[in-house]
Amino acid sequence: MQSRNTDTHSKEHASDSTDMKSLSLICKTSMPLFGDVMTKMYEIEAYSYDKLLPQLESIAKLTDSLPWPRCVHANVQGPPPHTIVLVDMRPERFVMADRSKFMDAEHCRLAMKQLARFHGAGLALKHRRPGTFDEFKKVLDMNIWDTAELRANQKPWTEQMVILPDVLKAKYPEGSDVHSRLKKIFEANRRDRIALMGPLDGPGYTFIHNDLHVNNMMFQYDKSSGAVTDCRIIDFQMSIYGPPARDVATVLMVCTDKPMRDKHWTSLLQTYHEEVLTTMKAAGCEDPGSLFSWAMLQDQMKLVSTYALCMSTMYYYGLFADDETINDLREMMAKISGGTDSKLGIKLIPNQLAHFEGLVEDLLDWGYLPTIEELEKQLAAYSLEKNALVQNEAK
Predict the structure, then answer these.
(1) Which end of the chain has fewer beta carbons closer than 10 Å to its terminal beta carbon, N or C?
(2) Can you tell me the mean pLDDT for 202-229?
(3) What distance in Å separates the CA atoms of residue 55 and residue 125, rounded to the nearest whole number?
(4) Which spans are transmembrane here (predicted)?
(5) Average pLDDT in the chain
């Protein structure tokens, strides 16, 4: 997401003895922001396109309608700016969806199918080629993002997000059970948002996008009817090993409104889960349901729901905010990159307030919003897991 404002476009032409063929390319160049964090993003995306995604295509026999664009070149060595060259999908009528609108059921269903192919191929690789999978896992480890620099870059968001429980006081008054839970969640996010992402490892884990939302997907539309017909996932700059449900949640919780979820939540999850199993089956997994069951997906969704709630506040600035707030965000990012502390105030517009209220209501209805005791157990378990990991690495 951070790089697209400085994307440059080029076209490369090739010919043979009989006719002229053209190939349209898009060149992504890194922005002069965030220092080493931006460099790491480009290294991860280049690694994903060069190493990981070809293996997923191979194991799951993904040939037509790949869930992602083709990468033809990446230059991430040396000082920035870094460059990644991709096949331009616009000639195939793939465009960005309107980020100012919540995703409808049709967009979500296509997104879930392509996301499931990505996750399903990763799960198949995990069980059928464990050696290869483990090599990728060493590179795409959550610890690559657990750095002081990234925490500093995220600080303006995490510091301001703690006020959300007070923004919702009209619906969930101070002192109420829900308000107390929300304060605990957002304070935990302020201290260490990685702790809310779910355990560092667990059943059904594979490689995930880790930054999936409407602005990191492209959609194809029918020329005549305007109906959405296909989807591609883009921008693998933060890909890691983690719970697949995290990607599902940042699409279906962050990028949708309550009326859509009320009508289509279960069917969209079923669409996703069925496509995961279909992809794993095609890759040679004889009993995919035992490797990634419906119950496992539900357990993961509950674990990542608090993270999705917090990210809904953060993504607001990049996805659904008005032009004034977007400009404030750009100024803040420039100050951070220049070494200046900056603050960002939350300015809610009516549909966003309704979105946050509706999301909290849904989490309560689904049993996804943890009690204070449940959250404390989750945070304690994360602390133990992280300490054990540090000790193992020190050996």
Answers:
(1) C
(2) 96
(3) 8
(4) none
(5) 87
The type of residue at 321 is A
Separation CA 37–CA 21 (nearest Å)? 38
Residues found in the chain = 395
| Helix (H) / strand (E) containing 248 | helix 245-252
pTM of the model: 0.90
What burial class does residue 266 get, using C-beta atoms within 10 Å of its C-beta: 0-12 exposed, 13-18 middle, 19+ buried? exposed
Q: State how far the Cα of 168 lies from the Cα of 139, in Å rounded to an integer.
A: 40
Alpha helices, H only, 283-371: 288-291, 294-319, 323-337, 350-366
Q: What per-residue confidence (pLDDT) applies to 3?
A: 39
- Domain 95-394 in CATH 3.90.1200: yes
Cα separation, 55 vs 5, whole angstroms: 30
CA angle 225, 227, 229 (to 5 degrees): 125
Q: Are strands 20-29 and 8-15 parallel, antiparallel or unpaired?
A: antiparallel
Closest Cα to residue 274, out of 123, 116, 122?
Answer: 116
What Rg, from alpha-carbon coordinates, does the chain have? Answer: 21
Output the CA–CA distances (angstroms, integers) from residue 392 to 17, 140, 320, 385, 389, in the order listed: 60, 18, 42, 11, 5
Q: Which residues pair with 15 in a beta bridge?
A: 20
Q: How far is it, in rounded angstroms, from Cα 2 to Cα 258?
A: 28
Long-range contacts of 337-341 (CB under 8 A, 24+ apart): 337/32, 337/33, 337/34, 337/35
Q: Whole-angstrom Cα distance, residue 158 to residue 344?
A: 10
Q: Under a CB-based contact definition with an 8 Å cutoff, are residues 206 and 123 in contact?
A: yes
